[in-house]
Design goal:
The chain is mainly β. It has two helices and ten strands.
Length: 169
Amino acid sequence: MITLCTTMGNFSIELDFENAPVTANNFLQYARDEFYVGTIFHRVIDGFMIQGGGMDIEMNEKQAREPIVNEADNGRLNTVGTLAMARTSDPDSASSQFFINVADNGFLNHSGKDANGWGYAVFADVVDGMDVVENIKTVRTVTEGYHRDVPAEIIEITAVQISDDYDHL
């Protein structure tokens, strides 16, 4: 498990190496590098998702590694409590940013290998602390510059704890 410690509490996730090996290993490496420490949940939409993993507390995008291949065709669905990779319109553009589904978002699932159907790769599940995620999804949001749905109060990832289970990977 990986525990993300935030200013609103902690939650733990379990990576899915079987169905999303590239994506799970990508997230694990960012966690090991402590890349996520000092990043914020910069986009929160109740009834949809909470997004983080790429912006610092001043809303500056952190320099991420090269993008990874999109594994959205792995059979995993964007349901409540799953983590998926954020990306641009390019299906293979995900790097560090991720989101946690706070609703069943079937329209984000893979439906075909074309621009409209690629979907968003689910690679992990919240296994403890879903109440923290539920609290984050309800915060008041504002527009900051060209960013919408930004929490009015900073929700920062202050630490990342990696369990011994992932030491051998």
